[in-house]
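Table S2 (continued). Query chain:
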Amino acid sequence: MKSLFEKLGGTYHKKGDYFLPDLFLPETAPVGIWGQRRKHYLKTQRGPLYNALLLSGKLNDHLIEVDTQAEAMFSQLVKQLAEQESVTEQLKAERQMEWVGRMNNVRNRAEKIIFRELIYGEDVV
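Corresponding output:
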């Protein structure tokens, strides 16, 4: 006849008078800045969705996916917007401060687009 612990499966350790299961979180990839921003938004503004993703074990995968998409989108947008605004290497060499200001403007606009479309966007689960 099997003992209770053999029926339950897994491993246990004794703590005082109790046997506690040995629980481990699965190893996952780190979540970048865009994923962290998405997590903050979900946690503060979309609590039920955040809890559903967390309890189903899909939260980290969702955050990593958003982070990956946002990073690629940010790079592409900065490149496209810089071309449209004529923010070139020549401008950088000739008038550095103007280049810095215009490039910061481009990066800020790209960031706003990502926030609107990916971070605060429709929640597809």
